[in-house]
Design goal:
The complex is a heterodimer of chains A (270) and B (276).
Chain A (H helix, E strand, L loop, with lengths): L9 H16 L13 E6 L6 E7 L1 H5 L7 E9 L4 E9 L4 E4 L1 H5 L6 E10 L18 E5 L6 E4 L3 E2 L8 E4 L9 E9 L6 E9 L5 E9 L4 E7 L9 E8 L7 E6 L4 E5 L1
Antiparallel strand pairs in A: 1-6, 1-9, 2-5, 2-7, 3-4, 3-6, 7-8, 10-15, 11-14, 11-16, 12-13, 12-15, 16-17
Chain B lengths: L1 E7 L6 E8 L10 H5 L2 E9 L2 E12 L4 E4 L14 E9 L10 E8 L5 E7 L15 E10 L3 E10 L12 E6 L5 E7 L5 E6 H5 L10 E9 L3 E10 L5 E5 L3 H4 L4 H8 L8
Antiparallel strand pairs in B: 1-6, 2-5, 2-7, 3-4, 3-6, 7-8, 9-14, 10-13, 10-15, 11-12, 11-14, 15-16
Classes of the chains: A mainly beta (270), B mainly beta (276).
Chain lengths: 270, 276
């Protein structure tokens, strides 16, 4: 039996030492800096048909009740070109939560389309009390609602901000969309990277794979876009689904809003 | 290779459940394409409060890229019933092993009265053989997506399966609490559910009489701890006047944190009695 070979190349050894050193150093990193990249969610503001709320929860206190303390979420609202239009901080008490209405929180003219980015921070700069939770991620939910919340959709977070430009992903959605009762299908897409991205989203018929709609666009860094396809020509189709050879980032799948003929809507990650 | 997909009914919200089981290649998966090309076999089990009410070991076969529809039309056991049911689809690729494999299936619910529907893509989870020496870890759920008002509520469905065929209560109760925005516990309910069942918790019923129900709904967080089974938890937020609803799955703790899960589970399970 041959002996296993060990790679003593300088790069691997250095990387290993660096990782081990960072692990040891990590206990000295305060909570506010031991966090994953910020999370981003789509923002739509088309009252009265569509408004967006976000929900933030003090999850660190629920996971570590013995060391509970308030947390802050640092929020950045951007428009569809990726330009910052507002910044805000919200404080969430121990075990508490916030139903965040951007109209109240930002106090500025809201863009019709954009994104909200959130990062979690400890209220105290040098807080170590819940370090046993490890690196924390500022996940939050989005609520899309019409006036009176007669129709609504709740969407879980899906993508973090990317500090580098990932390779474009080829993707085919597993979500099948029956168009018969729909007035329109609308997809919303965010570019969670720091670079411009060329992206394409295609709507296909399930049984044949035939392309029935296609949309290509260049998206600005941290930009967002929205495309609506009327379904009057598609209502006889069995099922539809989305594909792309160029998602803006891995898992940055579009949100799909379905508008029904009776005025209702529903939405989901595709 | 073997996996399972758990589907709750939610008759309480007036919804019909449909699922599309997919045999599709997942990004980065290790499953040989040739195995996918042979197709995916599906065994279906439907339980009501732990009792097996339907079983078909050869319910369907899903070719690569295909979809198998589970609905009242293809399986009458998904139709209206006295109690909520859990549908367990066991999906197999024929390599002779029980190793888990990545999958994503579609849940779709229709409002019976209007036909409006919403969907959710959801991963399946592995089939784990029952082991009395090592019961499943208790769940720790945080669901910051509960709106309650005169015309709004959230139905949180706790579906569980152990794969067993005996009717048996779980060894650990599930403690469910509703917290307001200030972090105060508004209501708590302790439930001992059978293995292989779906519990639907209507948040409005839980808090009714403890908070005023307004036209503009109030926001709450539901937390749940305990149980001794494998859970899939899905929340339906509904306008009960229009029937329109949102569906979303929960995020398990590893989405939020990557540290000491054992300590987190021990401490989170003590909340709120240990801290308030």
């Amino acid at each position: 039996m041959s002996q296993p070979t060990i790679d003593y190349s300088g790069t691997k050894v250095m990387k290993g030492l660096l990782r081990a050193g960072l692990r040891r150093m990590n206990k000295f990193v305060p909570r506010s800096f031991d966090v994953s990249p910020p999370i981003v969610q789509l923002f739509v503001h088309e009252p009265p048909r569509l408004r967006t709320h976000y929900t933030f929860v003090n999850f660190t206190s629920l996971y570590s009740p013995g060391t509970s303390e308030p947390v802050r979420y640092v929020l950045t609202l951007r428009d569809d070109r990726g330009h910052t239009v507002g910044k805000a901080k919200i404080e969430v008490p121990p075990f508490g939560s916030v139903d965040c209405d951007p109209e109240r929180v930002f106090g500025c003219k809201l863009p019709a389309l954009g994104s909200l980015c959130a990062q979690i921070r400890s209220r105290r700069l040098f807080s170590y009390s819940d370090k046993h939770l490890g690196k924390v991620t500022a996940h939050f939910y989005a609520l899309y609602r019409d006036e009176g919340m007669r129709a609504l959709s709740v969407i879980h977070p899906q993508t973090a901000i990317w500090n580098h430009t990932p390779r474009p992903e080829r993707w085919s959605s597993n979500m099948l969309i029956p168009p018969a009762t729909l007035e329109s299908i609308r997809f919303l897409q965010v570019n969670p990277t720091q670079r411009p991205v060329q992206t394409e989203i295609v709507l296909r018929a399930r049984h044949t794979g035939e392309i029935v709609e296609r949309s290509v666009a260049a998206m600005a860094p941290m930009g967002a876009r929205s495309v609506t396809w009327q379904t009057d020509q598609l209502s006889s189709r069995d099922m539809l689904y989305l594909t792309s050879d160029s998602l803006t980032a891995p898992n940055a799948k579009p949100l799909v809003f379905l508008f029904f003929r009776n005025g209702a809507f529903s939405a989901a990650h595709s | 290779m073997l996996g399972q997909f758990v589907i709750p009914t939610c008759h309480a919200a007036g919804l019909n459940a449909t699922a599309f089981l997919r045999n599709t290649v997942r990004i980065g998966e290790q499953v040989p394409l040739a195995l996918r090309e042979k197709g995916m076999d599906v065994e279906l089990r439907v339980y009501e409060r732990g009792k097996l009410v339907f079983r078909d070991e050869h319910f369907g076969h899903v070719p690569l890229g295909g979809a198998l529809q589970l609905s009242e039309e293809t399986c009458p056991a998904l139709g209206p019933s006295d109690n909520e049911r859990v549908i367990v689809a066991r999906c197999a690729l024929s390599d002779g092993t029980e190793a888990p494999f990545a999958q994503e299936h579609q849940l779709m619910y229709h409002v019976r009265a209007t036909g409006v529907f919403d969907s959710l893509l959801y991963d399946q989870f592995p089939v784990v053989a029952p082991n009395p020496q090592k019961p499943p870890s208790p769940i720790v759920l945080i669901a910051p997506k509960i709106w309650v008002g005169r015309e709004h509520t959230a139905f949180v469905t706790f579906s569980n399966t152990t794969g067993g065929l005996d009717v048996r209560a779980q060894s650990v109760p599930l403690e469910i609490s509703v917290l307001n925005s200030a972090g105060t516990v508004v209501a708590t309910q302790s439930v001992t559910e059978n293995e292989n069942s779906t519990l639907v918790v209507d948040a409005r019923k839980l808090v009714e009489g403890r908070v005023p129900l307004r036209a503009d709904p109030e926001f709450f967080t539901m937390i749940a701890r305990g149980g001794a089974s494998f859970y899939a938890i899905v929340t339906f937020v509904q306008n009960t006047a229009t029937g329109n609803f949102a569906i979303e799955h929960s995020l398990s703790p590893h989405y939020y944190i990557n540290g000491d899960m054992g300590r987190m589970r021990r401490e989170a399970l003590k909340f709120p009695s240990a801290s308030r």
